[in-house]
Write a sequence for this structure.
């Protein structure tokens, strides 16, 4: 009975292993063009084909959120001159843009408007506005805003934005580095202070 059970488990494990490998090869072939383009973007080399760079986000004794933050900051410093890097989380590749010159092409595009699932973690906070909408809904809202709003308007906001950003940073610096904070309240307050501060200057 036991040898038969072990043989069955062995066969099942072999089938599962072959299935995973076949799926991985199929995924790579199906997305070959995407993979070729991603290969041009700098990033840490994945140690394990199916795991990607997940090992970078694990440090013994360090909470996951702090570990993720430290790793992303370190990668931004490492690839600073490129303004972007690629990381692989399992079979999924993520491209992180962190400089204005690399973000311009995305922000100025009228075609690259589909949002990845990572955006929807902030859906409850920001709602279905211009940032998170897509398709015709995004185009209608963009057209409405573009006709009433020019980016040069923001030039007048720069001093108050810098001032309130310093206030926000000072608040966050006072938080215990091992503690946690709900970022929504200070960010919302900072935004309102910028808007109201500008209106006070205009009056």
């Amino acid at each position: 009975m036991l040898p038969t059970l072990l043989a069955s488990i062995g066969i099942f494990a072999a089938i599962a292993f072959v299935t995973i490998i076949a799926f991985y090869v199929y995924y790579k072939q199906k997305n070959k063009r995407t993979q070729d383009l991603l290969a041009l973007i700098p990033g840490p080399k994945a140690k394990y084909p199916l795991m990607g760079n997940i090992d970078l986000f694990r440090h013994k004794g360090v909470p996951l959120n702090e570990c993720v933050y430290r790793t992303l900051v370190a990668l931004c410093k490492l690839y600073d001159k490129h303004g972007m890097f690629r990381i692989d989380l399992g079979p999924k590749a993520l491209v992180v843009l962190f400089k204005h010159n690399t973000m311009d092409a995305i922000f100025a595009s009228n075609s690259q408007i589909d949002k990845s699932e990572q955006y929807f973690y902030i859906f409850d906070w920001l709602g279905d506005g211009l940032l998170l909408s897509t398709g015709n809904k995004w185009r209608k809202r963009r057209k409405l805003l573009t006709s009433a709003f020019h980016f040069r308007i923001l030039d007048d906001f720069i001093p108050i934005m810098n001032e309130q950003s310093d206030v926000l940073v000072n608040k966050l610096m006072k938080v215990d580095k091992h503690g946690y904070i709900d970022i929504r309240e200070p960010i919302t307050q900072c935004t309102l202070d910028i808007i109201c501060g500008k209106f006070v200057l205009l009056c």
Observations:
- Helices lie at 2-30, 32-38, 64-78, 100-107, 123-126, 135-148, 158-173, 184-202.
